[in-house]
Design a protein that fits this description.
Blueprint lengths: L2 H16 L20 H26 L16 H6 L6 E2 L5 H9 L6 H9 L22 E2 L9 H16 L12 E6 L6 H15 L6 E7 L2 E2 L2 E2 L4 H6 L6 E6 L3 H18 L3 E6 L18 H9 L2 H11 L5 H23 L7 H5 L7 H8 L40 H15 L3 E5 L15 H5 L4 E3 L4 H13 L3 E6 L2 H4 L3 H14 L8 E7 L17 H4 L5 E3 L4 H18 L2 E7 L32 E3 L5 E5 L3 H13 L5 E5 L2 E3 L3 H11 L2 E8 L4 H11 L6 E6 L17 H12 L6
Parallel strand pairs: 1-2, 1-3, 3-4, 4-8, 7-8, 9-10, 9-11, 11-12, 12-14, 13-14, 16-17, 16-19, 19-20
Antiparallel strand pairs: 5-6, 13-18, 15-17
Helix pairs in contact: 1-11, 2-4, 2-5, 2-11, 2-12, 5-12, 6-7, 6-17, 14-21, 15-21, 17-19, 22-25
């Protein structure tokens, strides 16, 4: 035990000895009129607080001994036990990493759970940890409805808002959901997190949604200890920032006063449950023992401030209350506290002896489950035909629209040859008709039908509950999707442009991609994120509408990235992504090349060669490419806009007796390794036509994959420049073009063949 831990223990025991016992009273009698807190209930809350405290101490001890790993403690925040007591076990909780007492109390309400052992298994990174399986120390439990969160600051708030929205939406649509229709979503975080743009955006989204009379049953709990690691939060700041926000009910309590905290927490929870509107509860807490095990508070805090916090220790305050209320004697409280310490010590000893994860295969087992046969079966379920539930009306063109201003000139049926945009529109309509769990939403996707008309008519056909517009905030768009996924939906959110997803990438990287990983697959994120992107738009937007960088997405473990280039592939791949999300809980990014949305022709004006029917194509296996042609001299590997360019180059080469095949990767993650290698070996020469940037582009991964697999034939790549895309004709100076592809192909054909 170090000096700070010893100070805390000595203070607790000294205060017990100094407390004046009140007249003994039966445990069932109230000890506080306002809260109705009984002696027995107070003992139960104290036990949870004491367990959380001893878990912190044990975690620090294990770390010092080399048997535990980085763990952020909850000491000083134990008043959050009152929030757990004010809610139902069925209310989903997304917790702050200092909500240890909440977790202990909540888990103890579920028969068979042992929160002490579970937390210690997490601290020891034991494979037996029932939530993360040894991958991270998190507060989470599916039986206790605690959804695990990482320690990324405030990143869980958008998901919490999305879940609160989706619980009500599921009930309205009569969709089966894990959560009761009258649930309250609780989301806790620290005062420093409250200043993060993610928190500000999520809270604003909750208020904005409720302002439109859309139910938003969420309770925000700010555990305000006045510090963000070493940076102080002004004492009155949280109240000034959130205490008078229109549409956000405000509740406040002193965390050292358990009855007051319980009264405020109950009032806040009851308000949200009754009114289905957001509320904000500020718990004034302290932070004891520093930010984390490695933090030395004395380097940035005055001794007087540290001592003042010690005097506000909530565990000591509850113990003092038990004594002065006559519920227990000092000796009885001390014995109870020490018995809990022994229980935690035994759990710690057992936990660090548990086996750890010992292989990469074991670590990644919960990252991205893949059952292609089951996915294929789901994707091949019968699609609707004709005007069922208004599905055919979803493709009606808007008066006066055309490709230049974002309209989509829709054909009569899926049997006709379609553009990419038309195929997506009709496939979305079919999916919405067939599957009640589908939601389509994003900025401008509803009334307008999308900037490029891809969702035109869907809202009119399927209603505002299933196809709707969102705030102009990508974090909220993705957060809504992640919350809806937890509520039983398969959401299809749209990010308007690829350049905009970087505003909210942590919702994909830090939240969506990690949930299954850190919950042992118990929680999933079935979501298909549609993103309009890549370059080659004529006369519009510059970089912000012609972003050709996807490296940040390809680097996310487990993420599926689909990039169709033609109508039939778009329809089949979208169906597959939706089924992979539903069946395996996969997180899919569906990257749609804007410049190909309304493309009809391939070789010459009016040939209609880039149109394709979608009626007979219903599935495309994830990680399988598409081959155009059977040329034996050269394989041109490409995707998206590069595919029609490469096909035109291949035709010009054929006129000179050079026969090339074009391999459309279609899936950028996972790469179609089998097809890539087979077609590379079939011709012995490979040219990669990559419209993304030379550094960090797709071609780097393709080259590496071929070399790793032993391909030793001539290999080259041609890419766009390492540049943002400028406005106007200057764009052609930095983007891959057909001349560059053809020149590189002819140069490669002059190289010696493979050994």
């Amino acid at each position: 035990m170090n000096d700070r831990e010893a100070d805390l223990d000595q203070w607790f025991r000294a205060e017990l000895a100094a407390a004046t016992p009140g007249p003994a009273r039966p445990p069932h009698e109230p000890i506080d009129a306002a809260s109705g807190l009984t002696g027995q209930h107070c003992l139960e809350l104290f036990d949870a607080q004491a367990a959380s405290r001893h878990l912190d101490l044990a975690a620090r001890r294990l770390t010092r001994e080399g048997h535990g790993y980085y763990s952020i403690g909850s000491s000083g925040h134990e008043s959050n036990v009152a929030v757990a007591a004010a809610l139902r076990v069925t209310d989903p909780a997304l917790l702050h990493y200092r909500s240890g007492a909440f977790f202990v109390y909540r888990a103890r309400q579920v028969p068979g759970l042992d929160p002490i052992r579970d937390v210690m298994l997490g601290v020891a990174a034991a494979a037996a940890d029932p939530i993360s399986g040894g991958r991270h120390k998190v507060f989470g439990s599916q039986p206790a409805n605690v959804i695990p969160q990482t320690s990324t600051i405030a990143s869980h708030l958008p998901r919490a808002v999305g879940l609160a929205f989706a619980i009500e939406r599921a009930a309205n649509l009569r969709l089966a959901s894990p959560w009761p229709a009258d649930s309250v979503v609780v989301c806790s975080f620290g005062d420093a997190s409250a200043n993060h743009s993610t928190a500000a955006g999520a809270i604003n989204t909750a208020i904005h949604t409720a302002h439109q009379n859309v139910p938003m049953p969420i309770l925000f709990v700010c555990e305000d200890n006045g510090l963000g690691i070493s940076v102080p939060t002004p004492r009155t700041w949280i109240e000034q920032a959130y205490g008078s926000r229109p549409g956000l009910a405000w509740f406040d309590a002193d965390g050292t006063d358990l009855p007051a905290a319980l009264t405020a927490a109950r009032a806040a929870a009851d308000h949200v449950r009754a009114h289905r509107k957001p509320a904000f509860l500020r718990l004034r807490t302290v932070r004891l023992l520093g930010h984390a095990g490695s933090d030395v508070e004395s380097a940035y805090r005055r001794p007087a401030d540290i001592a003042a916090d010690l005097r506000r220790d909530p565990v000591t305050a509850t113990a003092r209350l038990l004594i002065t209320a006559g519920v227990a004697t000092p000796a009885e409280v001390a014995a109870r506290y020490d018995a809990i310490a022994e229980q935690v010590a035994a759990a710690a000893e057992s936990a660090w002896n548990e086996p750890k994860l010992t292989s990469a295969a074991a670590v990644v087992a919960t990252l991205a489950p893949a059952r292609p046969t089951v996915v294929r079966t789901d994707a091949l379920r019968a699609m609707p035909e004709g005007d069922r539930n208004g599905a055919s009306r979803a493709t009606d063109p808007a008066p006066g629209t055309d490709a230049a201003n974002g309209g989509t000139d829709s054909p009569a049926s899926t049997g006709d040859a379609l553009t990419l945009a038309q195929a997506l529109n009709q496939t979305l309509a079919q999916l919405l008709t067939r599957d009640r769990d589908i939601l389509v939403f994003g900025e401008d996707v509803g009334r307008k039908g999308g900037v490029y008309g891809v969702t035109k008519g869907l809202q009119q056909s399927f209603g505002v509950r299933r196809v709707f517009d969102t705030l102009l905030d990508e974090q909220s768009v993705l957060g809504t999707a992640l919350g809806a996924a937890l509520a039983g939906f398969v959401p299809i959110p749209e990010i308007q442009y690829l350049a905009y997803v970087h505003n909210a990438e942590d919702q994909l990287r830090g939240e969506a991609a990690t949930l299954s990983f850190f919950s042992g697959g118990r929680y999933r994120n079935p979501v298909v994120v549609r993103i309009a992107g890549l370059a080659y738009q004529k006369g519009f937007g510059g970089h912000f509408h012609n972003d050709n960088s996807i490296a940040a997405l390809r680097d996310i473990p487990g993420l599926v990235i689909a990039t169709p280039s033609r109508a039939d592939d778009a329809a089949a791949m979208l169906r597959t992504c939706v089924s992979a999300a539903r069946v395996d809980g996969r997180v899919c990014v569906f990257l749609e090349p804007i410049a190909l949305y309304h493309t009809r022709d391939l070789y010459r004006a009016g040939d209609g060669a880039w149109l394709a029917p979608i009626s007979g194509v219903r599935h495309a296996d994830i990680g399988r490419a598409r081959v155009h042609g059977t040329g034996s001299h050269l394989t041109i590997v490409s995707f998206a806009n590069g595919v029609p360019m490469s096909l035109r180059v291949a035709r010009r080469l054929a006129a000179d007796g050079i026969h090339a095949r074009v391999l459309d990767l279609r899936w950028l993650a996972p790469l179609p390794m089998e097809d890539l290698l087979d077609n590379a070996r079939a011709t012995g020469r490979v040219l990669i036509a990559d419209e993304t940037r030379r550094s960090g582009g797709v071609s780097e991964a393709v080259c590496t994959a071929l070399l790793d697999a032993g391909f030793d034939g001539p290999l080259a790549r041609v890419t766009s420049a390492d540049s943002f895309v400028p406005l106007g004709p200057a764009a052609s100076t930095v983007l891959l073009d057909e001349a560059a592809i053809e020149s590189a192909a002819r140069k490669l054909l002059a190289a010696p063949p493979a050994r």
